[in-house]
Amino acid sequence: MRKMTIFTLFAFLFLLLLSACSSSEATKINLAEVTRSLFYAPQYVALEQGYFKEEGLEVELQTTWGGDTTMTALLSGGADIALVGSETSIYVYAQDSKDYAINFAQLTQTDGTFLVAKDPDSNFSWENVVGSNFLGQRIGGMPQMVGEYVLKQHGIDPHADLELTQNIDFANIPGAFASGDYEYVQLFEPTASVLEQAGQGHIVASFGEESGTVPYTVFMAKQSFLDDNPETITKFTRAIYKAQQWVTENSAEEIAKVIEPYFEDTDLEILASSIERYKNQGSFATDPILDEAEWNNLKGIMDEAGELPADVPYEDLVNTTFAEDVISN
């Protein structure tokens, strides 16, 4: 009888151990980012600081290099969640997709590009670009649309008042500017600062400061994934919110140290100064909520560029339920 009692006890403990292991098993998330960018610092903070792990999530990050390939990965099931410009969700919606890509957590809230001049210009004004040889971003992407929007805000027609080049791949733009006869280029950090440090360019203006608040980069998932995995989306959003708070509360130097593994080819000093520039202009969203005013600003910029395929209602492609729940709790 005593042997049976001991056997029963061991069996119970074994089952309890199995149950504990099963309950602690992490939920795997395939996350696709549109490019590797210092602009996405809070995402890397969430990974490096263990915020996803705290939520029981195992996040596998892949860089899919471009809006089209990122959305293809998301819509085909190659990714569960995508970090990409929210304009891509509008493009998908306009194609009468049966399973929309829904924006559920915002990461950046301004444009992240800077105007870099070939020569120093301490007295820069936007009128200086008139008649120049200008190297822009690809047609249909947010950098290009914001770039044209800002120029128009200053009374400059980007297609009539300057020589605008838009046919160079994103990865090759810095090299083309450095080696070519372009006078101005639109670049993200830390590339802009790297060129400046090398004496190949000089940052003279910020497109982010000029264009206002906009849902520039957002985490999105298919509606079906949100419906089937609400708890997972809540946990993911909570991890991002923790990272956003950490980025807000810590110095650019501390942030740079944490995310340095994702930018091994860039000096820590350049990382810190670039992050400081983004922090100063409020590029990093302080919470994951994408509000309607930002959405309308996005549509206005797209419309101005002639790239708005449909006037998509805010409530159709934005779900703030998860973000609001995370913040309130």
UniProtKB/TrEMBL annotation:
<keyword id="KW-0732">Signal</keyword>
<comment type="similarity">
    <text>Belongs to the bacterial solute-binding protein SsuA/TauA family.</text>
</comment>
<protein>
    <recommendedName>
        <fullName>SsuA/THI5-like domain-containing protein</fullName>
    </recommendedName>
</protein>
<feature type="signal peptide">
    <location>
        <begin position="1"/>
        <end position="26"/>
    </location>
</feature>
<dbReference type="GO" id="GO:0042597">
    <property type="term" value="C:periplasmic space"/>
</dbReference>
<dbReference type="Pfam" id="PF13379">
    <property type="entry name" value="NMT1_2"/>
</dbReference>
